[in-house]
Amino acid sequence: MDKLERKFPTGKPTLYGAPYSVYVRSARLGLEEKGVAYHLEPVDVFAENGVPDWYLALNPFGKIPTLCHENAVLFETSAILRYIDEAFEGVRLQPRDPMRRARMNQVLSILDNYIYPHLVWDIYVERIVNARNGTTDELKIAAAIPVASQALTSISAILSNGPWLLGDEISLADLHAAAMLSLASNAPECKMLILEHPALEDWLARMEARPSMQRTTSRAD
Ligand SMILES: N[C@@H](CCC(=O)N[C@@H](CS)C(=O)NCC(=O)O)C(=O)O
Fold first, then answer.
1. Among 20, 22, 23, 108, which residue has the most ligand 1 atoms within 8 Å of its CB, making it the best to mutate?
2. Is the pLDDT score of 93 beyond 90?
3. Range of the domain at 21
4. For the domain that residue 32 is a member of, what is the CATH number?
5. Strand duo 66-69 + 14-17: pairing
6. Residue 221 has what pLDDT?
7. Per-residue DSSP letters for 110-153?
8. What CATH number is associated with residue 163?
9. pLDDT tier for residue 139 given thresholds of 50, 70 and 90
């Protein structure tokens, strides 16, 4: 049976991706928090020979994750997260109140547009991943710090009294943010920036303690 024939193996949703990806982890956190059984189908978009053709047929951008469910193929993580929340029973992950819901969307946007490129790529990847072969670009890290700092300040300003970003109820914003900040905080520069916001640091510690986070580490796969 080839990969595409295995797309809808048991009626469970299939998530294509690799456990190292923050975007895949975000989608997995949605599934875990909802209590949805799913199948994680490995695909390595950074493989030496490039993105496999069978995967490009699912996701023409060659990014992970992609979700397949009920004969439909869905890519772009924020769409996947919203679908998971709306299609399955379980705890509600999007506020009903319009302003809280807008705040959740605002956080998702800040994460995609500022945190992922600047904390994950410009700082974490340079400091931790590229350091392994001695190619860290210090100028890139230095240039990223002001915008990374502003992005964390903006999320911190939204963080209410907790325990979660939008208050009493955990939302998609918490899941997406935890996936990115958990990884980025391995870089000392990101850690320092997070420590400037004690409430954000406490929030991240609370997120790290959740079973969903513990079940979705790369080590757990
Ligand atoms: N806009 C996409 C972004 C996903 C994304 O960038 N995933 C990374 C892994 S964390 C990826 O596939 N990178 C492959 C590449 O950039 O070639 C989404 O929201 O799902």
1. 23
2. yes
3. 14-87
4. 3.40.30.10
5. antiparallel
6. 36
7. HIIIIIIIIIIIIIIIIIIIGGGGT---HHHHHHHHHHHHHHHH
8. 1.20.1050.10
9. very high
**What distance lies between CA 213 and its chain's CA centroid?**
11
- Are 172 and 114 in a shared domain? yes
Please tell me the distance from the alpha carbon of residue 88 to that of residue 202, in angstroms, as a whole number: 30
Q: What is the mean pLDDT of the chain?
A: 94
Give the DSSP letter of residue 220.
Answer: G
pTM: 0.94
**Ligand 1: lining residues by beta carbon, under 6 Å:** 21-23, 45, 62-64, 76-77
Question: Token match 């300003």: residue?
Answer: 157
Q: Please, which pLDDT band fits residue 9 given cuts at 50, 70 and 90?
A: low
N- to C-terminal Cα separation, the chain: 23
- Smallest CA separation from ligand 1 atom 18, residue: 76
Q: What is the pLDDT of residue 162?
A: 84
